[in-house]
Every structure is written in C-alpha cells, then in structure tokens.
C-alpha cells in the first residue's frame, strides 16, 4: 500500500486542515501505532492514528457548510482554544473550517470534512477569489485604493494585485486571490489606516447573502455544482508538492 503524509491523512479524514495537523503533530497531540508522530512523516493507510488519544476514523459522507461567523469566534478545530468554531456550532459531524477569518472579523466561513476540497479552495496558486467589505478609521482616498490594488509590502513580501473599490466615505470592497495572515488589516496599517470592521461576503461563487450571523446552511444543488466546476482545474498540491511531483514525472531529473 502506498504511504501518505500524516497531515494529508488527517485532512482527508475530516479531522482538521493540513496546516492545523502540522501544529498538532508539532505539539505532540498525534500518535501513529502508539508512537508520538513527527513532522513530515508518511504512514501506511492502515496505520492506527490517534489525536488527543482518540482514534481517527475517516468520515465517509462529505459535507460543506456556509456559515456567517460572528466576531469573537476562533476559526480552529482545536478544542483547547476557547470559543473555537467547532464547539460553537456543535454540528453532529466532524468538520473544520476552510481557512480562517480573524477572531474580530465576521462573515462567510466554509466548513467541511473534505480535505481535498479544502486544499483546492485554499491554495493561493489556484487564484480563487474571496471578497470582503471593510470599514476604516478615516476617509478612503483614490490614492489609497490604487496603492491597495497594486500591492502592499507586508510580511517580507508584496501582496498580489487585487480589486479595490470605494463603497463609502470610510469603507471599501476588496477582492483577494491570496490569504496571508491578517492580510487586509496589515495592508491598511502599512498605509496608515486602521480597520474597524471586516466582513467576508463571498468565496468564489458562494455568497454570504442574507444568512443570519451565527447560522449556517449546506452548500448543495446548483451552487455546489458551480463550485465544483470552478474547482475542476484546480490542484490540491502545494507549490513544493507540485515541484516534487514534476521531478518524479521527469524521472528525478
């Protein structure tokens, strides 16, 4: 049987995202066949994997939920985190968030137990859009919009060009195709602005719409078919994994 990376195994099983799996492995929460797991390890599909002492069993039925996240809720499946999203929802199946919204941010959050789907949506290399409505502490100028749209230097890089549109005296709409840590807040701070409110209203074709804060719905029917069509050409592999796959395809050259 072909071995699989442990973080991918946990993601595919609907336990958590690959990124969160890496954190749990690093913190010693994961065991494989009775031994503490190590970062980057590969396992056989029939290995006994436990998280926090509980055996991992793969969820057969895949779900995808759209939620309107309230402020104060933390986007993690980590039970030790106070106000985590999983405890807040108390959903009957094991699910975890697709990416993150800051604790203070609100709006559209997707949750699922489908690791492949998560990676296809989240990989920055797939250029999938996420749209936000933002209010700030002082008037939004044309120069500010142009600077935001061209790219801003944060976190030792320059943000990818994006769409920015003024929506009010102190508010704007922004569409990103990447998701750096606290990206919009950091971009605004660099340009001398402070974010007051930040709401995500769209991920790809999925709209927040009139979904009430703190509630959720299933993504299904035509909406799900359109999402799957948009994801059909996407990869779930990271840039590093893609390069590794290309090397193997070329015979290791």
Name the helix and strand elements from N-terminus to C-terminus, one letter apiece: EHHEEEEEEHEEHEHEEEEHEEEHH
* Largest sheet: number of strands, sense, barrel closure: 9 strands, mixed
- What is the typical, i.e. mean, pLDDT? 90
Give the % helix: 25-40%
Q: Are there runs of 5+ residues with pLDDT below 50, and where?
A: none
**Terminal Cα separation, in Å?**
25 Å
Give the overall silhouette: globular
Strand content: 25-35%
If helices are DSSP runs of H or I spanning 4 or more residues, what is the number of helices?
Answer: 8
- Gyration radius, to the nearest Å? 19 Å
Number of strands: 17
Question: Which structural class matches the secondary elements?
Answer: alpha+beta
Helix and strand arrangement:
Blueprint: E1 4-5, H1 6-12, H2 18-26, E2 30-32, E3 35-36, E4 42-43, E5 49-51, E6 54-55, E7 64-69, H3 85-89, E8 96-97, E9 106-112, H4 115-122, E10 130-136, H5 142-150, E11 153-154, E12 157-158, E13 163-168, E14 171-176, H6 183-190, E15 195-203, E16 206-207, E17 216-218, H7 221-231, H8 239-249
Parallel strand pairs: 9-15
Antiparallel strand pairs: 1-4, 2-3, 2-5, 5-6, 7-9, 7-17, 8-9, 10-14, 10-15, 11-12, 13-14, 15-16
Helix pairs in contact: 1-2
């Amino acid at each position: 049987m072909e071995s699989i990376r442990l973080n991918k195994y946990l993601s595919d099983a609907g336990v958590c995202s690959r990124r969160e799996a890496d954190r749990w492995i690093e913190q010693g929460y994961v065991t494989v066949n009775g031994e503490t797991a190590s970062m980057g390890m590969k396992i056989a599909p029939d290995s006994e994997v436990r998280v926090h002492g509980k055996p991992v069993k793969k969820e057969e039925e895949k779900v995808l939920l759209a939620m309107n996240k309230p402020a104060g809720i933390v986007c993690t499946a980590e039970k030790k985190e106070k106000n985590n999203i999983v405890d807040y929802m108390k959903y009957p199946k094991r699910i975890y968030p697709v990416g993150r919204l800051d604790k203070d941010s609100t709006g559209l959050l997707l949750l699922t137990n489908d690791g492949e789907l998560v990676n296809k949506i989240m990989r920055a290399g797939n250029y999938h859009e996420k749209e936000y409505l933002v209010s700030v502490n002082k008037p939004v100028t044309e120069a500010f919009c142009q600077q935001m749209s061209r790219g801003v230097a944060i976190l030792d890089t320059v943000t990818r060009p994006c769409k920015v549109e003024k929506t009010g005296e102190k508010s704007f709409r922004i569409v990103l195709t990447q998701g750096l840590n606290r990206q919009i807040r950091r971009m605004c701070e660099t340009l001398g602005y402070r974010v007051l409110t930040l709401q995500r209203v769209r991920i790809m074709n999925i709209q927040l719409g009139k979904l009430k804060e703190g509630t959720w719905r299933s993504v299904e029917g035509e909406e799900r078919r359109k999402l799957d069509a948009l994801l059909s050409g996407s990869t779930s592999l990271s840039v590093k994994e893609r390069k590794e796959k290309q090397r193997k395809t070329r015979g290791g050259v």
